[in-house]
Amino acid sequence: MNPGYEGRSDLPDNLKALFRPVTMVVPNLEMICEIMLMSEGFQSARLLALKMTVLYKLAKEQLSKQYHYDFQLRALKSVLVMAGKLKRDNKDIVEDLVLMRALRDMNMPKFVYEDEPLFLGLISDLFPSMDITRVPYEKYDLIAKIIENNNLQLIPAQINKMVQLYETMLTRHTTMVVGPTGAGKSTVIDLYKQVDNV
Description:
The chain is an all-alpha fold. The chain has 2 domains: 29-126, Helicase, Ruva Protein, domain 3; 140-197. It has 9 helices and no strands. The longest helix has 18 residues, at 45-62. The radius of gyration is 20 Å and the shape is globular.
């Protein structure tokens, strides 16, 4: 039914003959974002929806082509749900900052190393004069202690990947850790399990 989508195939001709033709159009992502942001309680939903769709359009055009990158409606929807949760948890923070954090935190874990600065540059262009650095994770000291107990070298980038794995698992049904051999995937997963058990 949707042959252009990955993992789908065309219907056989004898089965196609039983169906009436239907015309489909590309969904208006900006309108969908605006309505979802309004339903999550954002006052400046129209402006934020425009920023969000522009960011995804630019990211799709400018970042490298990776098989696991997704800048379609499904990815937008998960960011919007996360933004709504952040807004409810932090009522005193301005809406632009809430959406910027959701966009950053939901997208950064999936990017290859070369694309991270490009994406952060796009975010800082669309959300000017906002601090795009992350707030330190509250269990940072615990993670550092567990790394020390395992006789491993403390590398801030690896701790950042553990936090990203944690945040991704909070918002996604399934999670896959990918990367080249020796990148530290197994170490991050093992350390994450130890932190989760504490």
